[in-house]
Amino acid sequence: MQQSIRLSLSLAGTAALALASIPFGIGSATAQEAKAGNAADLGVMSISLKDAIQPNFGFQGALQGAGTPNQAGIGGFLPLVTGDNSVFFLDAQANLNFADYNNYSSIINTTVAGTTISTSSRLGYRFLNSDRSWMFGVNAGYDSRPMATGAADTGVNVRNSSTVFYQQVAAGLEAVSNTWNFNAYALIPVGTTNVQLNSVYQGGTLDTYGLDVGYAITPDFKASVGYYYQDGDLNTADGSGVLGRLSYNISNGLTAGVNLSYDQAFETRFSADLKYRFGSNGYGAPSKKKAWQTPVIEALTETVKHRDVRVHDKETAGCTRVKDKLSQQYKCI
């Protein structure tokens, strides 16, 4: 655990230094463009954030990924304090978690079953630089995940399947321009992190530390690549991974995305997600102010990323597989 905390602090410190340097590197170039007239053309400097930043709410859904479930639910963004160039906010979600599809485990061996309700909340602070060419933010919060379990997808016969409860604390740093975006995050399990799922497998949560770098191909079409390191008490999923993402803003407030990840524990995992938010930046309104639709301004009310409690499993120590002659399934003795 101490090693995980040291790694978390190290990554957070590195990310903070990287983000802090942006205004003097990339940010300065953007500032020069703004002086040339870009900011004036967009009308960004004339926007009142108290008008632009409004509560928004809606729904989100995602297919299972590397340690994450099939899910769908509701969520919302609530500005608590809005300043001339900043916002202090609450971002909260509640999701129904569904069974894994096609007997294909999202946590490596044991399939997730039944329906449970997970929650996620973030308190955060976001602010714009002097010419409003970059948005910077910091956030922290708490996530919970009850998880019902079923059969194994390995051919092993399991008994005494249980429903378990996991939780984590999380923190993130972010920086967004009209072209680039950076997101550093840490997901740190707390409480009981390792539970017996059934007669054969144990399930444990994963500490996850990552950094995503994104690029806006067009204002509505974005791509990102990321690196993450995961570490668990069961010691079978520890290691590095990569994550790629493409997202497209179908209409104002409706966004679809696809994700592709790879690490040695989960191997290649594909997932997709859909999110709709209305009530902010003119979402759902008949008339919209174009100046509010720049990525920098929209980022002030964007949903915080990376908030699922990630779980993996492994065989219980001392388990010996024996094949049953009648069922032709394996069991643990």
From TrEMBL:
Signal peptide location: 1-31
Originating species: Synechococcus lacustris str. Tous
Keywords on record: Signal
Protein name: Carbamoyl-phosphate synthase
InterPro entries referenced in this protein's UniProt entry, alphabetically: IAT_beta_sf
Gene3D superfamilies, alphabetized: Inverse autotransporter, beta-domain
Taxonomic superkingdom: Bacteria
